[in-house]
Design brief:
- This protein has about 120 residues and is mainly β.
- It has no helices and eleven strands.
- The strands form two sheets. Strands 2, 4, 5, 6, 9, 10 and 11 form a seven-stranded mixed β-sheet that branches. A four-stranded antiparallel β-sheet has the order 1-3-8-7, with no helix packed on it.
- The termini are far apart.
């Protein structure tokens, strides 16, 4: 059973920064390609940043240059450092773990990030 627990969300002013975390309760963290998705009000869930199955990272056009995804394999944790946050970044942020061996997706419960003055 895979459990993803997100933390670090909240309210931040435009131009501010926030770092969110996701701890994965898994046996072998190395087989999972981790990522962050977000869903703004009234919109579909979209990728914000993620690690690719065969290595490397991917960022959406709106997050590239401002967001940085990283991970700590020993802690089984993935992070998303978000800088220069804008009102349009307001969304529920979801941690995603893609099991590359069994081709299964797992999701965290979601966490609100609100950018507002």
């Amino acid at each position: 059973q895979v459990e993803l627990v997100e933390s670090g969300g909240g309210l931040v002013q435009p131009g501010g920064s926030l770092k969110i975390s996701c701890v994965a309760s898994v046996d072998d963290f190395s087989i999972y390609a981790m990522g962050w998705y977000r869903q703004a009000p009234g919109k579909s869930r979209k990728v914000a940043a993620r690690f690719l199955n065969r290595g490397g990272t991917f960022y959406s056009d709106s997050t590239r240059g401002r967001f940085t995804i990283s991970k700590d394999d020993a802690k089984k944790t993935v992070y998303l450092q978000m800088n220069n946050l804008q009102v349009d970044d307001t969304a529920v942020y979801y941690c995603n773990a893609y099991d590359t061996q069994n081709r299964l997706d797992y999701w965290g419960q979601g966490m609100q990030v609100t950018v507002s003055s």
